[in-house]
């Protein structure tokens, strides 16, 4: 009898095809095994190289594909109300400015969100979260930015944190106080930024409610100088930064974000070569948001070829928000990334796994099927990984595993 070394673990998935997303390419393993111990991956790879396991439970995947649990790395999932009426006005020809002047737009979401209790914010976000979870999402980033006062921003961030108690999902929170100028600071954006940097960031950082800080650097948002002040304060508070950059115009925001070693710069339709070089140098992820591009009927595509050539990691996310991307499907975001931006299947899948993890600063913990990472898995009824990108409005998820459960 051979003296085989038995490795004890909690659960093993066998007879699976793996897309480990750990490279090269998708990291495909045709006859694969994943083993979980203590919520982490103890082994993921070919059956032929696997140690001998004693597992409490063994699952036969019958040839199904396993990917890492999906990661939606840019959402505004917490808000009250919706903007369906504004959508109808826009269909009838109204412009964003006209709607804003009539009290609509982002201001209307701020009013509704300020009027909502923390419980109400949690309750209204849960169906959106459930839609993402149903597609195999195991980690999600959620931004504030519809409160625009210390109290209301805090309520949004608390509601975001609470979602992680309500569902088996990891939530990282991002403070987006510099999203818009609230009515009480109309005409005084600098005055509003004063309170963001003096009151909000120090308090919310001290309360542990924000994992990162974001801003909207745009002609209709905040200037580079204002963004710089937000980033400086975030850095002093020990928080990493991200940026809504170059969505509607080139404000050279991505280069500014890279100066602060931002985790990601997001949108990027108007990104230029200097911004790309700065991002490549800083290791800043390019998070592309095709849902917002689609819904606002933009026509200028992000500079994908130049991002590729510079080796900038590309992430993909829903940007789920009531104004410009009322989308709760990360599978659809992948399809849009391919169809609208011409990303490859490999880029789309990396964009919602490994590269999305990098955009959250969690590259060492989630995003690939590798020993030591969290055992967050999506098991799919598909013949090839391309099917996850190819279909529109079809969800082939068979099972979703978080922390080995
Ligand atoms: N960029 C956007 O497209 C959204 N926020 C941002 O910074 C718009 C959010 C909204 O209109 O409610
Ligand atoms: Fe956004």
General description of the model:
The protein has 405 residues and is an alpha/beta fold. The chain has two domains: 7-69 and 368-401, Urease, subunit C, domain 1, CATH 2.30.40.10; 70-359, Metal-dependent hydrolases (TIM Barrel, Alpha-Beta Barrel), CATH 3.20.20. Helices cover 36% and strands 23% of the residues. The protein has 15 helices and 15 strands. The strands form two sheets. An eight-stranded parallel sheet has the order 6-7-8-9-10-11-12-13. Strands 1, 2, 3, 4, 5, 14 and 15 form a seven-stranded mixed sheet that branches. Helix 6 runs parallel beside helix 7. 3-[(4S)-2,5-dioxoimidazolidin-4-yl]propanoic acid binds at residues 106, 109, 179, 216, 244, 247, 292, 321-324. 3-[(4S)-2,5-dioxoimidazolidin-4-yl]propanoic acid binds next to helix 3.
Shape: globular
Distance between the termini: 34 Å
Average pLDDT reading: 96
Helix content: 25-40%
In the predicted model, the low-confidence regions spanning at least 5 consecutive residues are none
Most strands sheet: 8 strands, parallel
How do the strands line up in the largest sheet?
Answer: 6-7-8-9-10-11-12-13
Helix tally? 15
Binding site for 4-imidazolone-5-propanoate: 83, 146, 179, 247, 324
InterPro entries: Amidohydro-rel (IPR006680), HutI (IPR005920), Metal-dep_hydrolase_composite (IPR011059), Metal_Hydrolase (IPR032466)
Pfam family, one: Amidohydro_1
Catalytic activity: 4-imidazolone-5-propanoate + H2O = N-formimidoyl-L-glutamate
């Amino acid at each position: 009898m051979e003296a085989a070394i038995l490795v004890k673990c909690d659960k093993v998935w066998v007879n699976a095809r793996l897309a480990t997303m750990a490279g090269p390419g998708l990291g495909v393993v045709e006859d694969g095994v994943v083993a979980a111990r203590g919520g982490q991956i103890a082994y993921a790879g070919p059956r032929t190289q696997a140690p001998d396991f004693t597992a409490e439970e063994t699952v036969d995947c019958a040839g199904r594909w396993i990917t890492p649990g999906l990661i939606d790395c840019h959402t505004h999932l917490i808000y009250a109300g919706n903007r369906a009426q504004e959508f109808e006005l826009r269909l009838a020809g109204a412009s964003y400015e006209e709607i804003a002047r009539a009290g609509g737009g982002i201001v209307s979401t701020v009013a509704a969100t300020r009027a909502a209790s923390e419980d109400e914010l949690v309750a209204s976000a849960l169906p959106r979260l459930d839609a993402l979870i149903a597609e195999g999402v195991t980690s999600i980033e959620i931004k504030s930015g519809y409160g625009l006062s210390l109290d209301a921003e805090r309520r949004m961030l608390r509601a975001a944190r609470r979602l992680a108690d309500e569902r088996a999902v990891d939530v990282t929170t991002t403070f987006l106080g510099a999203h818009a100028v609230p009515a009480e600071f109309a005409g005084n954006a600098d005055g509003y930024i004063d309170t963001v940097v003096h009151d909000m960031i120090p308090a919310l950082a001290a309360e542990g409610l924000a994992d990162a800080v974001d801003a909207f650097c745009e002609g209709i948002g905040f200037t580079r100088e204002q963004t710089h002040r937000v980033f400086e304060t975030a850095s002093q508070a020990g928080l990493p930064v991200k940026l809504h950059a170059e969505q509607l115009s080139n404000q050279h925001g991505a280069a500014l974000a890279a100066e602060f070693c931002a985790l990601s710069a997001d949108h990027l339709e108007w990104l230029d070569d200097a911004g790309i070089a700065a991002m490549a140098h800083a290791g800043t992820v390019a998070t592309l948001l095709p849902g917002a591009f689609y819904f606002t009927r933009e026509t200028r595509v992000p500079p994908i070829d130049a991002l590729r050539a510079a080796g900038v990691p590309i992430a993909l996310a829903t940007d789920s928000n009531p104004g410009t991307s009322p989308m709760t499907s990360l599978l659809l975001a992948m399809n849009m990334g391919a169809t609208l931006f011409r990303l490859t299947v490999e880029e789309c899948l990396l964009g919602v796994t490994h590269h999305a993890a990098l955009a959250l600063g969690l590259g060492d913990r989630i995003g690939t099927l590798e020993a030591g990472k969290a055992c967050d898995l999506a098991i799919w009824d598909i013949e090839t990984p391309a099917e996850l990108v190819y279909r529109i409005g079809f969800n082939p998820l068979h099972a979703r595993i978080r922390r080995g459960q």
